[in-house]
Write a structure and sequence with these properties.
The complex is a heterodimer of chains A (284) and B (209). Chain A is of the alpha/beta class and 284 residues long. Chain A is built from seven helices and eleven strands. In chain A, helix 3 packs parallel to helix 6 and helix 4 packs parallel to helix 5.
């Protein structure tokens, strides 16, 4: 019996590597979602509230019981144990600096029914945060969140290779990483990787306005100017920055994935491109 | 970088004064360009995990230099840890910030632009611009402009830190202290004999390598 026939007889063996595609196996890679001739916003996320979508906020934590954030399904922190090993542990610290809470509030406003998980990798006492960031991201990929918001970056080149590897792993596991770009004259990561969705700011006031940028590395621009974001103590703060444009795009991704759960990151990026405010699909 | 390299980079003793002046000039220009009440630079002290006021123009000038607070907190803390520039238009909503700022500095800003100071892959500190005129609505171009200033301030801060390391290496107890003393004396006036001796030492060291 040939290997190809075996495959045909055992189509559930999806763990086999897809290094080649025998004729009999074409059915097995039938694409669950095919994009319509004209992708519209109505097709992409009409009626979606983000229900059933698991979103991870990789940041400084999320304040519990903030009215603009609502329910946080799980909070963990990456911490060093006595032996110096990094552990991902349940965390009751909330948010020490406010940044993660602000990002969570933006996602919640756009996609009210998502499940939110906080992974705390930033904040007071986080010296040498590169390893902590990597471990937090690795954990988020292991947990297979559909969308991970990363309003942060590292400039440490020694982490670039591992970060790149994780970004690719996420891409192949259908974990969409949405990462803040920054306009500094220094290179930072992971937003520069092609496997993530990178976000800068535009000046429009509509949260659903976003633009595709045909001249990367920044691929999308989201709302990032004069936002009233969730802030510590249950309040709000008026802010500007790519940190807040990023969860706008993450929220839109959650809406799309809520309606089309089988989209791959490649397809999702295509949908974003076609429904961007400077593309045809935005009108409908 | 070794201390000796730092010493060479700094050039001469007293360079830190010149670099401090450069940093001060940068915050003064930043303040003027944005029409702000104040501009300042925080240096990150990695050992202590604290931010230190290193240069101030406008409100608080001359009083705040050297004041410290924990690196991971406040708006500057965010900016440093996320490596992301941030503009906050109404700080009064952040009672923690207002209270701690009022207690420690005696000046409570209403708005703040903050940007990380990055040199190569290191974050050295934060550049802040406080209280731009109320009518000036934040534009993203301002953030880009602030990014350019941050680049300049980061270079100045880097030079200042190198100069300090150099000075420490050349200080009274440092191993290079005799070299510093010789260099200082050479500057006083022409000392041909001392110069010749120094050149001979240089040749000797070169030959023994």
């Amino acid at each position: 019996m040939s290997a190809a026939l075996e495959l045909h007889e055992h189509p559930e063996e999806e763990d086999l590597p897809a290094w080649s595609l025998p004729a009999e196996a074409v059915d097995r890679i039938r694409v669950p979602v095919t994009l319509p001739e004209q992708v519209t916003r109505e097709w992409a996320w009409g009626g979606s509230t983000g229900a059933g979508v698991r979103v991870c906020i990789l940041d400084s934590g999320i304040e519990l019981d903030h009215p603009l954030v609502g329910r946080v399904d799980r909070s963990v922190a990456v911490l060093r144990d006595e032996d110096g090993k990094l552990q991902v542990l349940d965390d009751a610290e909330g948010d020490l600096c406010g940044h993660g809470t602000a990002c969570a509030g933006v996602v919640r406003a756009l996609a009210p029914d998502v499940e939110l998980t906080s992974v705390r990798v930033l904040g007071a006492g986080y010296k040498g945060g590169g390893e902590i960031l990597l471990r937090g991201l690795e954990w988020a990929i292991e947990q297979e969140f559909q969308v991970v918001n990363m309003s942060l970056s590292t400039t440490r080149t020694k982490y670039v290779e591992r970060l790149h590897e994780l970004a690719d792993r996420a891409y192949f596991k259908r974990v969409v990483l949405v990462a803040s770009a920054h306009n500094m004259p220094v290179e930072s990561f992971p937003w520069r990787f092609a496997s993530v969705i990178s976000v800068g700011s535009h000046e429009e006031a509509d949260p659903l306005t976003f633009f595709y940028n045909p001249t990367p590395p920044v691929e999308f621009f989201g709302r990032g100017l004069d936002l009233d974001v969730a802030w510590l103590g249950g309040g709000t703060l008026r802010c500007t920055g790519n940190s807040f444009a990023t969860p706008h795009i993450a929220g839109i991704c959650a809406l799309i994935v809520g309606k089309h759960s089988d989209l791959t990151p490649f397809q999702l990026k295509s949908v974003l491109h076609q429904t961007a405010s400077n593309a045809k699909g935005a009108a409908a | 970088m070794s201390d000796l390299d730092a010493a060479v980079a700094a050039g001469v003793l007293g360079a830190d004064e010149a670099h401090r002046a450069l940093l001060q000039a940068t915050v003064e220009v930043a303040r003027a360009i944005f029409g702000a009440k104040a501009a300042s630079v925080f240096l990150l002290d990695e050992e202590a995990d604290e931010l230190v006021f290193e240069a101030v123009a406008g409100e608080g000038e001359g009083e705040l230099i050297g004041m410290r607070f924990p690196a991971g907190t406040g708006i500057a803390g965010w900016v440093l840890t996320t490596r992301q520039p941030l503009i906050v238009d109404d700080l009064s909503a952040d009672t923690r910030w207002s209270r701690s700022a009022a207690e420690s500095t005696g000046y409570v800003p209403k708005s703040m632009m903050a940007v990380p100071l990055l040199v190569e892959e290191r974050a050295l500190g934060v550049l802040n611009v406080l209280d731009r005129p109320e009518e000036s609505r934040v534009k993203l171009r301002e953030v880009d402009l602030l990014g350019l200033f941050a680049n300049q301030a980061a270079i100045a801060l880097d030079l200042l830190q190198r100069a300090r390391r150099a000075r420490e290496a050349l200080a009274a107890e440092g191993r290079l202290a005799p070299l510093a003393r010789v260099a200082a004396r050479l500057e006083e006036d022409d000392r041909d004999t001392a110069f010749e001796l120094l050149q001979a030492l240089d040749r000797l060291l070169a030959e023994s390598e």
